[in-house]
Amino acid sequence: MPLILENYIPDDNSYLTHGKCRICLERANSINFGVFCCKACKAFFMRSSTNKYKKYVCKFNQACLNDPEKIKKCKFCRWDKCLKNGMSINEERVAKLKNPPNKFTQPNPLESNQSIISKQTDSFNCEHYVKSDHTRILILNQLKEITCELYKENTMEFSSPVLIANYIANSCQKRVYNYTEEFNQFIREERFKVFQKHSNSIVKILKDLPCFLNISKNDLKTMISTHFFPTLSVMYLKFFINDDYYFMFDNDVQLNRDVFAALYNVKARDYAFDYLFTMKSLNMSEKELGLLIPFFLCLTSSNLENGELVGQVFHYYKCALFHEFKLNKRTNEFLNKFNQIASFGPLLNKMLMDTAK
């Protein structure tokens, strides 16, 4: 399975765990005025809020918003982006991640797959996972916004292919292929392209996810390998329509049930499609799907150099995901199904890797 992590080099000297500044895209150090941002943008916003912003003028026809270098020089656009990202003088000035991963005072070891969600259906309430103080909720909301944006950014290219997939699904035309050695070799090569593309997408997401900067490269490889198919399922879930898969390889070849079985075997295909069916039936929002990526990646309890650190990161994303479940009024039936996919994901991942042809 291709894991393209060679270009991912964490900064060993970094103590920052908040991802990128929402204003200038430099590394953030905390939540300031309600937004993950760096110290420079925090100071700029604080200075500007004393009516200085009224004198700001853009010399570049307001073309600075998407240019990190220009936006640091243009006070007008920098102030505008602060407001657009939700900075407010009424929010608490500083809110750091409580016990950041390199300074945790109380270890939170990884729980087993089965125990992670064992309490959900009995006592699922926001307070069990999320303290109700304003700062903590602020952090969780920021995590949700960032993961949702990263999910949408990395699935945006699927918009047109998904429309085509729905058209094919509604046409009820079953595609039948002749499984010659040449065809089998072709679909294996196409699968490799999908794996490579997904690996690159996950690496890109990891670079921008808060709390992942201090996880070692070896642990990241293990995390991605162990949860490769669950995270791929999240990213490509929209192609699963009417109990079949409508992702298209080159040459207009559909990765349907029969093609999937040719790439693995019938038993593995059936387990994979049951998994996809259950995940699709949850009808999760984009915020929930975005949070599933870091949630799944941190759902690794063994073979890690620093399992305690990953467990601490997992704690934040679990809290954010469960908080979103609470806001969306998810039922016990939903939680039981979610428990199934969370518990079975790593097992399915191993099965597909072992049976890949």
Automatic annotation (TrEMBL):
**Presence of the UniProt keyword Transcription regulation in the record:** yes
Q: Name one Pfam family in it.
A: zf-C4
Statement: the UniProt record of this protein carries the keyword Acetylation: no
Q: Per the database record, which ranges form the NR LBD domain?
A: 142-357
Superkingdom of source: Eukaryota
Alphabetical UniProt keywords: DNA-binding, Metal-binding, Nucleus, Receptor, Transcription, Transcription regulation, Zinc, Zinc-finger
List, for all copies, the residue spans of the domain called Nuclear receptor: 18-94
Q: Which GO terms describe its molecular function?
A: nuclear receptor activity; RNA polymerase II cis-regulatory region sequence-specific DNA binding; zinc ion binding
Q: Write down the InterPro entries for this protein, in alphabetical order.
A: NHR-like_dom_sf (IPR035500), Nucl_hrmn_rcpt_lig-bd (IPR000536), Nuclear_hormone_rcpt_NR1 (IPR050234), Znf_hrmn_rcpt (IPR001628), Znf_NHR/GATA (IPR013088)
Q: Which biological process terms from the Gene Ontology are attached to this UniProt entry? A: cell differentiation; hormone-mediated signaling pathway; negative regulation of transcription by RNA polymerase II; positive regulation of transcription by RNA polymerase II
> What's the protein here called?
Nuclear receptor
